[in-house]
Automatic annotation (TrEMBL):
Residues 77-147 form the MBD domain. Residues 16-71 form the CW-type domain. This is MBD domain-containing protein. Signal peptide: none annotated. It holds the Pfam family MBD. Keywords: DNA-binding, Metal-binding, Nucleus, Transcription, Transcription regulation, Zinc, Zinc-finger.
């Protein structure tokens, strides 16, 4: 169920790297378009259910143009859940692929450069730093994209077994 979804993707290579290319799939023609920045990508992701992505949202692009990217195994792709909130102003959401390619881990980097790994750490940071009270706790989301198995590099043999937690497939 990959069409009509928004994906972020990571160029394959050294495990443990974070996402370096963001992309969205056009709802009409299903072509992939590079997204200019994480901030623009998060805006698209947060509103894609109400306002689907189409090629024309990228300046100078239409469904008649060739896609910017091809979904293939030259890169490790991950599929993101639509509707996640944008990262609060001043913070940065960081996603890191585990070395065994089993999943990604989500972190938030504070405006002061501190890495936060849990909602409790975020709440404590906001409580201790009143300048960041503008950041709603609900806008920090640790849901991670799903690693697309068919794009994991060959030779990755020691993988953590997958466990289902009842999450719905993205369509």
């Amino acid at each position: 169920m990959e069409e009509h979804t928004e994906k972020s993707k990571k160029i394959g290579g050294a495990p443990g790297r974070s996402i370096d290319i963001y992309a969205a799939q056009c709802e009409k023609c299903l072509k992939w378009r590079k997204i200019d920045s994480q901030e623009v990508y998060e805006e698209i992701r947060s509103t894609i259910q109400e306002d689907p992505f189409v090629c024309e949202k990228k300046q100078g692009k239409s469904c008649r143009d060739a896609g910017d990217l091809e979904y293939d195994s030259t890169r490790t792709w991950v599929i993101d859940k639509p509707g996640l909130p944008k990262t609060p102003r001043g913070f940065k959401r960081s996603l890191v692929l585990r070395k065994d390619f089993s999943k990604m881990d989500a972190y938030y980097i504070t405006p002061t450069g501190k890495k936060l790994r849990t909602r409790n750490e975020i709440a404590a940071f906001i409580d201790a730093n009143p300048d960041y009270k503008h950041a709603p706790l609900g806008d920090f989301n640790f849901t991670v994209p799903k690693v697309m198995e068919d794009t994991v590099p060959c030779g990755i043999t020691e993988r953590t077994p997958k466990r289902s937690k009842g999450l719905a497939m993205i369509d």
